[in-house]
């Protein structure tokens, strides 16, 4: 091999030839290794001239000879190993030595652009915003995967009605909410099922009560549950309305709502319109129990505390929240309402503090107390008498919350009342804490 005469001196030319020869030899050896590992074989068809010399027709041409030849791709791979660029263009169609008709065909760019393409080009990357879920329910819009609205509702909520057993231990229907798997992870779905199952089992045994307390404590403290908030709120509200006649189960649901409210990692602002009406119903509903001896009074008190807690948390952000709740409670303590509704309204208003008691309860306390005493004198029904006494106790508690020593009230004259008026109306139910100082009072129910 002799390079062209480009004006190089003898020693330089000899050194350049030696380096080029060594480089090409090493490259071919590496390419042969690549070809041997790839096991690439080429079929070489005999040419027409060789067929004529052998005295055979073209159709009698042999099947060809299987030979292993070095391919341009082998050389490119060897160059790639050495960190060099490719020097051969591969991927051509046709046999070796024959022209590639597809490669020689000229393509008119305008005709190609005007012709219909079999494969459409991909669209540009964009962003579309739509509602995946609203309050835990997937809206019926084209962007959501499930198109059938009936199927979606069946997938979200599935009711299983338990058969009623004979006797007093009849069990109500249990509603099991199945979460959409594409909205929540498996861990959150498992967490939701554990919480709801603990709530639905109740607390009839010490072990069940312990498990229920642990579940509600976890719900009040654990972070990372914001995605479960719409499902939890939906579960609480629907079951509160469904189990109105079961005070014990409703108390558990109120505890669940209380745990959601006190959890510092959750944001419930978007769900107050759904949660607060359900809690308010547990406070002022006319009838919350199917049996007279059920303890629905505790349910009303706990629901009132949960309602006041929500107002204290979100009252600063929403200026009309407390006003709307107080308006509903004032309607509940009206004279035309049932005694159970009046009890819930008095308890809830008294929890707002002395100013709310002074504005809404005390103007009616004397009138209601006399009416309740008259009703006790002529009513013999035990259930009715219990309702009257519970209302009297709620009124006494509200009066003590206003006149108690911790509120530092000046005197009953702030209400345009005297101690004689209070003594004549309430009698021994309201007693003075000190014989010399008539500014501190205590109350008891006789």
Automatic annotation (TrEMBL):
Keyword Nucleus: yes
Subcellular location: Nucleus
Main location: nucleus
Pfam families (alphabetical): TAF6_C
Segment forming the signal sequence: none
Protein's name in the database: TAF6 C-terminal heat repeat domain containing protein
Molecular-function annotations in GO: RNA polymerase II general transcription initiation factor activity; transcription coactivator activity
GO biological process, one term: RNA polymerase II preinitiation complex assembly
Keywords from the UniProt entry: Nucleus, Transcription, Transcription regulation
Membership in a protein family: Belongs to the TAF6 family.
Upper taxonomic lineage: Eukaryota, Sar, Stramenopiles, Ochrophyta, Bacillariophyta
UniProt keyword Protease, yes or no: no
GO cellular component: a single term: transcription factor TFIID complex
Domain TAF6 C-terminal HEAT repeat: 183-363
InterPro entries for the chain: TAF6, TAF6_C
CDD domains for this protein: TAF6C
PANTHER family named among the record's database cross-references: TRANSCRIPTION INITIATION FACTOR TFIID SUBUNIT 6
Source species: Nitzschia inconspicua
């Amino acid at each position: 091999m002799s390079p062209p005469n480009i004006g190089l001196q003898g020693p330089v030319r000899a050194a350049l030839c030696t380096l080029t020869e060594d480089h090409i030899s090493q490259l071919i050896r590496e390419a042969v290794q690549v070809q041997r590992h790839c096991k690439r074989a080429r079929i070489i068809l005999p040419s027409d001239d060789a067929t004529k010399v052998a005295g055979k027709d073209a159709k009698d041409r042999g099947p060809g000879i299987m030979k292993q030849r070095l391919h341009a791709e082998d050389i490119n791979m060897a160059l790639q190993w050495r960190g060099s660029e490719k020097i051969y263009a591969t991927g051509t169609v046709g046999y070796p030595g024959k022209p590639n008709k597809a490669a020689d065909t000229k393509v008119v760019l305008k005709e190609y652009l005007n012709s219909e393409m079999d494969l459409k080009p991909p669209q540009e990357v964009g962003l579309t915003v739509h509602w995946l879920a609203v309050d835990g329910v997937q809206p019926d819009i084209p962007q959501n995967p499930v198109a059938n609205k009936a199927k979606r509702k069946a997938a979200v909520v599935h009711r299983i009605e338990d058969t009623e057993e004979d006797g007093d231990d009849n069990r109500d229907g249990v509603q099991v909410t199945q979460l959409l798997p594409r909205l929540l992870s498996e861990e959150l779905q498992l967490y939701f099922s554990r919480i709801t199952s603990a709530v639905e089992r109740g607390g009839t045994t010490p072990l069940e009560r312990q498990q229920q307390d642990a579940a509600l404590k976890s719900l009040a403290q654990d972070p990372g549950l914001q995605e479960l908030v719409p499902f939890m709120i939906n579960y609480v509200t629907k079951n509160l309305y469904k189990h109105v006649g079961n005070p014990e189960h409703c108390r558990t649901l109120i505890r669940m709502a209380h745990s959601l409210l006190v959890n510092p990692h959750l944001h419930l602002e978007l769900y107050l319109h759904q949660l607060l009406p359900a809690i308010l119903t547990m406070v002022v509903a006319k009838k919350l129990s199917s049996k007279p001896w059920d303890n629905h009074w505790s349910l009303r008190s706990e629901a009132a505390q949960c309602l006041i807690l929500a107002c204290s948390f979100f009252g600063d952000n929403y200026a009309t929240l407390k006003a709307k709740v107080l308006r509903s409670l004032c309607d509940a303590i009206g004279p035309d309402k049932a005694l159970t509704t009046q009890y819930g309204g008095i308890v809830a208003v008294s929890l707002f503090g002395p100013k709310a008691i002074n504005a809404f309860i005390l103007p009616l306390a004397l009138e209601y107390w006399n009416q309740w005493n008259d009703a006790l004198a002529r009513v013999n029904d035990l259930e009715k008498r219990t309702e009257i006494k519970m209302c009297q106790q709620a009124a006494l508690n509200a009066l003590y919350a206003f006149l108690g020593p911790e509120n530092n009230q000046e005197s009953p004259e702030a209400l345009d009342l005297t101690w004689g008026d209070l003594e004549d109306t309430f009698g021994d139910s309201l007693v003075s804490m000190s014989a010399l100082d008539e500014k501190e009072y205590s109350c008891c129910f006789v």
